[in-house]
Amino acid sequence: KTYLEERAFHILEQDSQEFIELLKRDEALEKFRIKYEKLLAVLRKSHENEKHLMKKCRKLSAEILDMSAKVTVLRNITKDDEETISSLKMELEKAWKMIDTAYEKEQEAKAKINSQQEEIARLNILLEQSSRDVCNIEDLLKHNEEVTKERDQLLSEVVNLRESLTQATEQQQDTEKAKNEAEQSLMQLQQDIQLYQNEKLQEAQKKEKMEDELKSLLAEMDKKQAENQNLQQYMERNKEEQQKMEENLKELKILNERATKELEELKRKNNKLMQESEQQHLVFEEVVKDVQQKTTQLKERDDEVSQMRLEISKLNKTTDVIQSKLHVAEEQKVDAEHEKSILKNQVSRLERELDAAKKQTEIGKRAADGLVRERDILSQNLIKANSATQKQINLVKLHEQTKQNLEREIQSYKNETEKQRKTIYQLEKERDNFINEINELKEKIFQHLNDLEIQQTQLRDCEKEIQAHVIKSKQQQNLCETLKTEKNMYSKNLIEAKDEMTSMKTKLKTLTCELKQLKENLKDADAALEKAGLEQQKTEKEKESLKAEVLKMTKQALETKQFIENQEAEEQKLLKIIAEADAEKLKQKKEFDKVLKERCALGTQLIRRNGEVALLYEKIKIQQAILNRGETDYRQRVEDIRVLRLEIKKLRRERGILGKGVDNAEELRQQLNHMQKDLLKEQTRCKILEEELRKPLQIHRWRKLQATDPDTYELILKVQRLQKRLISKTDEVIEKEFLLQ
User: Fold this and answer.
1) Which residues form a coiled coil (predicted)?
2) Burial of 483 by CB count in 10 Å (0-12 exposed, 13-18 middle, 19+ buried)?
3) pTM score, two decimals?
4) Nearest to 460 by CA among 34, 52, 66, 100
5) CA–CA distance, 331 with 351 (Å, rounded to integer)
6) Are the C-beta atoms of 472 and 199 separated by less than 8 Å?
């Protein structure tokens, strides 16, 4: 993907360089070229930043893989520790089994001691009976023999007791060894407890640091949430504005498509009009030539008309003379009629003269009729010439109107091009603003992504520390459970030792009582039995040995008491430590629950943030697609502008050519004005021309097509409205940018 993206970026750079070279050719687009180069520089920087971020992501992914490998190793180590713990538990169970066997042996020894005590009580009873029967020496001797026998039995029993004592001492040594081992284990436990307390202090310090960091993170998260909410609101506003702008852009696209279609139609019409204008220019030149020829002909005709007028005036004068003569003749006729009677002779002569005069008048009338006919023909020719000139004037007017329409259309095209330039400039500004906004949003998104990555790493570290704390707490719980079990076992052992001590104390008391009784009995026996002195000395020696043993037993009892007291003190200390450990365990559980809740909350927040980031990425992709479309549309518009500029240059050239022709047209206009004045004078004179003027003239087909283009006008109005809306929207966007800044 990266190779394809770099290849696409390389292709885009090549296309942009070609486009910049095209823009360099046109000096009018220098500002646009500079802005485009700036945008390219920004795009390159963003691409380099993207590469840098991709490298960072790869490094972080590699570090994550290393950390996961370390976590697996630690898990394996914990599994090995669990196996060692299970093996130690098995050894402890074996030790407890050994202790149980020793306890059973002690119970057997106790049973033997009880049986021996019963025998001693029986012997005491026998001694009492023997004290009653002291009178008889023989009985005493017999009794002495029996006592010696019993002594031997007692000695054998003492040997047995010594063996049992040795066994008890061995068991006591074993118990002392177990006690020493227990003390060592207690020392180890105390050391472990001290280590645990140190670790707990370190963990408390870490926990305080973590709490401070969590508080700071929560504050930052609150800030980020507020910023995200603001960004969401801003993005929603931007969405609404983008939707509005998209709708406006769609409308503008539709209008642009319509405008392009209408421009194509107008281009076609313009081409047709240009062709027709060229044809009309040629026709106009021909008409001008015809007008010049006809003006010369009219001048000749005017001269002829003036000559004819002179002739007509002469004829009128002759007709007046003839009419006066007729009046005179009529008067003479009347006089002749009156003088008919007188002038009958002269009637024939006068009739002849009258006939000759009539013939002459008929000839004059015929000549006048011919002149009238010629006048009518001339008037008809004048009417035709006037109609032709009127047609030519109408054609000239139509040409002027078409020229004015073309100039208006050219002006409208110029206005439209200027408006389009303004709209293009505004759209470029908006595009730059949108690009800047998108870059700012990208930077913010990258910042948020970096912050989220940092927070994720911190959360991972927190989770790892929490897992370590959980593992330590589990280990501590296991240690506490083992301590509790050991405490229970030691308490059981203490209770059993106390019971044994009480039993031993009772036994010692009974033995001391028995020894006292035996001493009294022996004193009585020594007083009574002198013969048995040696045996008594032996018994005293044995008694001293027994005393020494009793002293040893008392010393051992005292030592056991001290040991029991020490164990009770240590037990109280251990109970205090266990209580403190339980309290700390509860605190740690509460803190652990809090941390779990916070982790859940942070997890939900991370999920939301990931969703929001995904939505932002989708929106960015959509905006990038829109920007790509806008760039393609912008390129098309630039090409259209270039074509329109070329057409404007052509129109300017044609306008210059037409302007050169307009210099001659002004002279023709002056001549036409003079001709129109003359024609108006003749129209007032001629009734026929008045009748023709009253009739409507034939309207030329171009007159019907005059100003019949309402679609372009409506489109211009729509473009103006949309421009106003765009200006208002750009003002709103600028105000919002100021507010955001």
Assistant:
1) 99-589, 634-692
2) buried
3) 0.20
4) 66
5) 14
6) yes
